[in-house]
Amino acid sequence: MLSQAQISEFWESGVVVVESAYSAHELEPLLQQHRRWIEESRHHDGPFGEMSDGRPRFDVEPGHCREKPALRRVASPEEISSAYLDILQGGPMLMAVVDLLGENLRFHHAKLNSKLPGSGTTVKWHQDFTFDPHSNDDCVTAMLFLDDIIPDIGPARVVPGSHRGPLYSLWHEEVFTGAVADEIAAQCEQKAVECLGPVGSLCLMHTRALHASSENLTRRPRTLYIATLTAADAIPLAPCAVPSKYAGSVVHGRNPGRIRSIAFDMENPEIPSGASFFDQQANG
């Protein structure tokens, strides 16, 4: 799936974009389902649905209403849509991560994140690994572009090489904010690169990489299907904030029956009380 140059870029920078990994035809079932979820959200004035832990599955931005829907996250869409489950069970996303991490892979969690036109959703600087620590860091966040990702649409911005650096605290004044300290964020702004590409592209990011995204300034939607895939010998060390009945399942290769660990030190993450980490970042 990946060229040697792309593999080298991932391990050097912590991120690589593979353009047009999927065709528009392949993505149409996912887009149709997303449109149905947006229509369903018009009938709710706040987060709705239910995950296995009782928290809402569908998260909406403040100001969401029937006339101006602002559905910003669907947690574990693979549990309720065969189209989203199929992406995890075979095809370009899975095979690209095989090229990076090897034959034996587990699924950790997935979500559908969207910035609809006119919404103000932003994501502050953070590392996924400090939300979802594992016994080793052979862990990839794979982002499938369901829309064309252009500069003003609020693309992911990543600090190249930050996956080889320290793990930064998400706790400040004894509050789990889900974001790094302001002084670290300011440094990130100076070094960040944007992850851009046409619909159907894949952005593969190491879970230790520092990243963020700004609001969507266009009149077009910005939707990403995001899945965390790990080496099969990387075992979760904290409860997942996006639970799924498929969590921990081997999606490629086999279960090696081993746990591989590396040395690192970090604080425990905190499960949000609401639908998603957006509230944690807003209140931090």
Defining traits:
284 residues, eight-stranded antiparallel β-sheet, four-stranded antiparallel β-sheet, 6 helices
Characterization of this structure:
With 284 residues, this protein is α+β, with helices and mostly antiparallel strands. The protein has one domain: Jelly Rolls (Sandwich), CATH 2.60.120. Helix content is 22%, strand content 23%. It has 6 helices and 14 strands. Strands 1, 2, 3, 4, 6, 11, 13 and 14 form an 8-stranded antiparallel β-sheet that branches. Strands 5-12-7-10 form a 4-stranded antiparallel β-sheet, covered by helices on one side. The chain has a two-stranded antiparallel ribbon with strand order 8-9. A hairpin with a 2-residue loop joins strand 8 (171-172) and strand 9. The longest helix has 18 residues, at 24-41. The termini are far apart.
Helix segment tally: 6
**Largest β sheet strand count, sense and barrel closure:** 8 strands, antiparallel
The CATH topology: Jelly Rolls
How much strand content do the residues show? 15-25%
Number of strands: 14
CATH class term:
Mainly Beta
In the residues, how many domains can be counted?
1
Envelope shape: globular
CATH superfamily: q2cbj1_9rhob like domain
Q: Classify the secondary structure makeup into a structural class.
A: alpha+beta
What's the architecture, going by CATH? Sandwich
Q: Between the first and last Cα atoms, what is the distance in angstroms?
A: 40 Å
What's the average pLDDT?
A: 96
Q: What fraction, in percent, of the residue positions are helical?
A: 10-25%
Strand and helix order: HEHEEHHEEEEEEHEEEEEH
Compute the CA-based radius of gyration.
18 Å
- Poorly predicted sequence stretches spanning 5 or more consecutive residues: none
